[in-house]
């Protein structure tokens, strides 16, 4: 089973003060993001944020919080998400954690796997030139022997020798895996990346 990390308790911190609190570790230039989601809507197939995790390039936890439901949850997806009702019933308000994440990743290189899904559920945008998505960098899939879009689980095992997502997912574990994989390919990736100042000039 996955060794799930429990988000830090925030009993002493009021949610509306969260964006102004000191973050526990260094916010490096590269940050990895991963989210866990629950299902909403009649069939539970729509996604809603339930947990968000950010780690720095040393794989230290910057943010790891459960998020209070914005709507009625119709499927907790516990077998995959690891989320239980008690985790999110006293979670941080969505607007509060969204703003903290927005401020933290601003101007940073954002690392993750299938980041489009995480950014969508956070209702955030991030400049394309500052996104490093391990599901879309072809040299990763090639080295891992994957065809098509590889899963994070498969490339973590092939490239890191790590078994992740055994049982329910853990957003800290997944963010760390994405960061480790990115760091393996950092030189090759950044050599071919468009410099931020060029991308901004070209309106990317």
UniProtKB/TrEMBL annotation:
Belongs to the REXO4 family. GO terms for biological process: rRNA processing. PANTHER family: RNA EXONUCLEASE 4, RNA EXONUCLEASE REXO1 / RECO3 FAMILY MEMBER-RELATED. The keyword rRNA-binding does not apply. It is found in: Nucleus. GO terms for molecular function: 3'-5' exonuclease activity; nucleic acid binding. Keywords: Exonuclease, Hydrolase, Nuclease, Nucleus. Residues 29-191 form the Exonuclease domain. This is RNA exonuclease 4. Gene3D superfamilies: Ribonuclease H-like superfamily/Ribonuclease H (3.30.420.10). InterPro entries: REX4_DEDDh_dom, REXO1/3/4-like, Ribonucl_H, RNaseH-like_sf, RNaseH_sf. It comes from Anopheles maculatus. The keyword RNA-binding does not apply. One of its GO terms (cellular component) is nucleus.
């Amino acid at each position: 089973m996955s060794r799930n990390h429990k988000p830090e308790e925030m009993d002493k911190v009021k949610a509306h003060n969260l964006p102004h609190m000191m973050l526990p570790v260094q916010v490096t230039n590269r940050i990895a993001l991963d989210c866990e989601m629950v299902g909403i809507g009649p069939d539970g197939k729509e996604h809603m944020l339930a947990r968000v995790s950010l780690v720095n390039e040393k794989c230290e936890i910057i943010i790891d919080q459960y998020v209070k439901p914005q709507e009625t949850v119709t499927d907790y997806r516990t077998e995959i998400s690891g989320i239980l009702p008690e985790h999110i019933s006293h979670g941080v308000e969505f607007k509060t954690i969204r703003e903290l994440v927005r401020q933290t990743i601003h101007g940073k290189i954002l690392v993750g796997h299938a980041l489009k899904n995480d950014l969508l559920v956070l209702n955030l945008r991030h400049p394309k030139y500052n996104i490093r998505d391990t599901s879309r960098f072809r040299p990763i899939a090639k080295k891992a022997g994957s065809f098509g879009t590889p899963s994070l689980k498969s490339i973590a095992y092939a490239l890191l020798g790590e078994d992740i997502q055994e049982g329910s997912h853990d957003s800290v574990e997944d963010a760390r895996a994405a960061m480790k994989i990115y760091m393996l390919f950092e030189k090759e990736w950044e050599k071919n990346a468009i410099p931020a100042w060029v991308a901004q000039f070209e309106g990317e």
